[in-house]
Amino acid sequence: MTRSIKKIGVFTSGGDSPGMNAAIRSVVRACVYHKIECVGIYRGYQGMIEGDFKPMDARSVNNIINKGGTILKSARCLEFKTAEGRKQAYDNLRKEGIDAFVVIGGDGSFTGAHIFAQEFNFPVMGIPGTIDNDIYGTTFTLGYDTALNTVVEVIDKIRDTASSHNRLFFIEVMGRDVGHIALNVGVGAGAEEILIPEEDLGLDRLLDSLKRSKASGKSSSIVVVAEGDTTGENVFELKKYVEKHLPIYDVRVSVLGHMQRGGAPSCYDRVLASRMGVSAVEALLKGESDKMVGVQDNKMIFTPISKAIKGHTVIDTELIRVSDILTI
Amino acid sequence: MTRSIKKIGVFTSGGDSPGMNAAIRSVVRACVYHKIECVGIYRGYQGMIEGDFKPMDARSVNNIINKGGTILKSARCLEFKTAEGRKQAYDNLRKEGIDAFVVIGGDGSFTGAHIFAQEFNFPVMGIPGTIDNDIYGTTFTLGYDTALNTVVEVIDKIRDTASSHNRLFFIEVMGRDVGHIALNVGVGAGAEEILIPEEDLGLDRLLDSLKRSKASGKSSSIVVVAEGDTTGENVFELKKYVEKHLPIYDVRVSVLGHMQRGGAPSCYDRVLASRMGVSAVEALLKGESDKMVGVQDNKMIFTPISKAIKGHTVIDTELIRVSDILTI
Amino acid sequence: MTRSIKKIGVFTSGGDSPGMNAAIRSVVRACVYHKIECVGIYRGYQGMIEGDFKPMDARSVNNIINKGGTILKSARCLEFKTAEGRKQAYDNLRKEGIDAFVVIGGDGSFTGAHIFAQEFNFPVMGIPGTIDNDIYGTTFTLGYDTALNTVVEVIDKIRDTASSHNRLFFIEVMGRDVGHIALNVGVGAGAEEILIPEEDLGLDRLLDSLKRSKASGKSSSIVVVAEGDTTGENVFELKKYVEKHLPIYDVRVSVLGHMQRGGAPSCYDRVLASRMGVSAVEALLKGESDKMVGVQDNKMIFTPISKAIKGHTVIDTELIRVSDILTI
Amino acid sequence: MTRSIKKIGVFTSGGDSPGMNAAIRSVVRACVYHKIECVGIYRGYQGMIEGDFKPMDARSVNNIINKGGTILKSARCLEFKTAEGRKQAYDNLRKEGIDAFVVIGGDGSFTGAHIFAQEFNFPVMGIPGTIDNDIYGTTFTLGYDTALNTVVEVIDKIRDTASSHNRLFFIEVMGRDVGHIALNVGVGAGAEEILIPEEDLGLDRLLDSLKRSKASGKSSSIVVVAEGDTTGENVFELKKYVEKHLPIYDVRVSVLGHMQRGGAPSCYDRVLASRMGVSAVEALLKGESDKMVGVQDNKMIFTPISKAIKGHTVIDTELIRVSDILTI
């Protein structure tokens, strides 16, 4: 039988992403709306183990919907991977009277939540927050849309100077395992080539592509490279390789790094976070557990966390084709 | 039998929206890729009637993917509503050797295209370009996502000064017939109330809502109002009404206007435009006609234009509920 | 003899402007650095009269350097114009142990400070915070640079849609008495005409100018109008006049309004605020009073408040000439 | 005797910077206004040697005032350092009927112009265009203000994620020889420490500073490092050093790179470019030569190029002091 839920904990875990604050705000206010209590847990599972809790009311989340980062902080926590750690966390939650929690994070955070939910028959609900868009069960993760905009704006700036000097730039963007960011910003910024982990273009085809681009009369070339791409060892090696084998190019490198994780969330991410927060709370109140809320066809859907963490997102091969056509 | 297509015309029509240039680029390059010719038609149907054509090659659309507005210009054209006007347009297209066209625009532009396609058995394909997101057959129209971001950024700025002075702002955003922009930016900017054409809140409930907002301890209030809302006559009248009946507020008004139509498109709009342009060209080459390309569940879909112009988009009532919860 | 200063009050007053928070932060931390106490006074003179004080330490101003608005709120206060009001304020300051204050605001706020300083021999220092750049004794006021950037970015967006439709826009920007914003954004956005209070262009010359602009082959026209301009009654009347007398134009209007007061401050405004805050505190500690800190030739200067409020800023006539040349 | 000037060449040279296009536009239109011809020279001195010229009229510079980069392209040119190269350039200019030129660039470009002016008694005028602000004879160079804003916006984003994880970031910004960018964005972004070439802080004092910052309760630390700083070998070495000697910190690195050179210019840079372009043309027409236009105390001033290239800009030591105070 479902325990009646009177107090919900909320926290952010793993790498932060824009929209996490908007999701926290939504969880908190949905609790207030449904007349239950809400407690913020600082630094994810670490704070759960340390009992770093703070009651949240509707006003405590004023003016955060448009802020990057997470007011509840985030951390990775090794201790939660141990049974002792989880037991300590559970005891703290019970002591605080917390009946359920909403975790905002990625794959690793969800794995922890799933084990915890099973171990203690504790109601949990996940909200996918990561810029990488690599979580099964949702078309878009929180922060992904914002990161895409951040990156295309930066590439637009780099294009300005690349065009002025007829240069070639290798631009590394986030994506250790998946190429969603690289592929979309590559199309969005009109990149001449896009290198993603899902597809090994090969150095020969890269050179061919760059030769064609030069021959076509373009004044600059941008190659977007996902972190996890294996065509070259990394963007610096790619630069060296091209300089050696295709000396017609003046080559530069840019590694965008952590700026991709920050910034005010886009409207889409704010709305998505707002919807997901309410959905997560209401699902818990309806007795659901161990699920992740996602968006599909612009509607909220739920996926068992066990499926979400086992599933894989797939790259949009049709978009790769579109990219090839447009770089003509 | 389908006439073989060797030359495609492309134009923008009606109110412009961010992403139109990206769509033009995509149509042009998809033509080049498929080894057919592409002709730009200036100022929509007006230019078609006047024969204002320009051949486009791959390089003619360099560096426009990130530009607002439309390099092909746009206009409304009364003459195309007459049989004579359309006949003149048809003659010009045939003289130029144009076998099909892609129209980027909204409802009115599609109506013209549909009549033209029927009248002359001429292959046409539509791409939905409007910030209003009011076209049946696509979850998102080109420019909508960008407009949402433009508006939330502006409201964020207004919130700064509203909070400093504990003020109430009525902010008018675009949307003569539909409240999609208002509802989404309202949620995204954390507006205290949202007034849309689809729902007449009523002045009494508006006052109640504002009283509750003040009582809850908020330091400022933002009410987002769609142009077409009928709660008050307009934002200026709303201001007067509230000043008279709820003098606890210091009220200001802001009408955002045409800035909402401009600006560099968001990554999402650039990618959507890129996909739609290729899809439209390839659909024509496959013998399709009189259809509109749209996006649903992140995939390209096609809807007969006759259905697109008769159908209606519906406001997301679930999002209205989310908004009510979050303004607590 | 100078009283030794152990506790300084700081507040913002009048219309808010970006950079005020950065200035508050600077005043607070300069006090901490010099080992004196700092007290925030809410809502300007109103809070002084009501005793709405809050001790500030170095951490209380964390993460505000990049926030628009003012965490200390702002207000206009009629009561401070009375001797009784000022006496009440003085009593509250003394009770709180406040020996001096820094006021961040504009002309009106400085006038109050000057009278107060004279009346009670109380050390005060002014920091010019207003987007209008209309304060004598400083080349730039806090928030002015940010407002210029906000406005040119918006006009860039409007230009996109104006060009797409070959339209003429009248854009009203802030500046009731002075045309600094209008003139600079007009030049910066490449406006075809600029209407400012300092110069009555006259409706005839406006029409001539617009005719020339059209004849020169420009695809759109932007006329920037300062609020206080007297060429037409306002932008709506200007629209009507041009529609009547120059029907070649499709005319639109945009009133930018309060968004100009908000937003994250530019780097220049943040640095200027940081410098001014330290300078103001150190001047008080050196025994200075009744002065305003300003910037001239990139250096901090001081002007007696009595001179600052009597003086006038003058429009840069050379820049008007540059504008005329560039709109050719 | 001054040769009457009937045709002026204009070009950009060296590293590009935002505002160069605005300066080109200003030079071109000032020529049109004064009824003389203007010729664009592509790729700086390289295009001069190759005769890569293009006549410019008022409309050829439409819609570029807000674009980063340079429509005339830029390049470095070794050949111009030889007498033969310069002779070839001179012959080309005379053949084209060009009587004088305006060079928009930095130190190196000015050195070439100065030699050329002396060698051929050819009228030249310089406009300082570089983001580094390292040119003697002007308080601000074109592009510097824009770069400052670009960088603080990026650091604001990095701060979001740094705060969420309590991390320390070393952020490398441009400035091989001078620390103007680093110092100003450091103050503007509230950096905990700023490392510039003009001052060797020393690794010990860096550690002390970081320890103090941690102890003060700050949730994140940002250290801005100019490229040319010598405290550590580079940001990667600084990271390693701190990780080794101050393991309380989780350290990350970000190298901002070329994005700093691009982007739409700020209003200030657009206005400055507009003023400088007109001033440069009018100075040539008055018979001036071998000078650089600059801005001082918000007024146009002229400095002999020979002095500009020998002089040094000095870091604002008062601002270093302000920075030290504010990081308390």
UniProtKB/TrEMBL annotation, chains A, B, C, D:
Keyword Transferase (UniProt): yes
Binding of substrate, residues: 130-132, 167, 174-176, 227, 252, 258-261
Positions bound to ATP: 15, 76-77, 106-109
Cofactor(s) it depends on: Mg(2+)
Pathway field: Carbohydrate degradation; glycolysis; D-glyceraldehyde 3-phosphate and glycerone phosphate from D-glucose: step 3/4
InterPro entries: ATP_PFK, ATP_PFK_prok-type, PFKA_ATP_prok, Phosphofructokinase_CS, Phosphofructokinase_dom, PKF_sf
Signal peptide region: none
Keyword Transferase: yes
This enzyme's EC code(s): 2.7.1.11
Domain Phosphofructokinase per the UniProt entry, residue ranges: 7-284
Control of this protein's activity: Allosterically activated by ADP and other diphosphonucleosides, and allosterically inhibited by phosphoenolpyruvate.
Subcellular location: Cytoplasm
Single GO BP term: fructose 1,6-bisphosphate metabolic process
UniProt binding sites for Mg(2+): 107
Transmembrane segments: none
Family affiliation: Belongs to the phosphofructokinase type A (PFKA) family. ATP-dependent PFK group I subfamily. Prokaryotic clade 'B1' sub-subfamily.
Subunit structure: Homotetramer.
Protein name per UniProt: ATP-dependent 6-phosphofructokinase
Gene giving rise to this polypeptide: pfkA
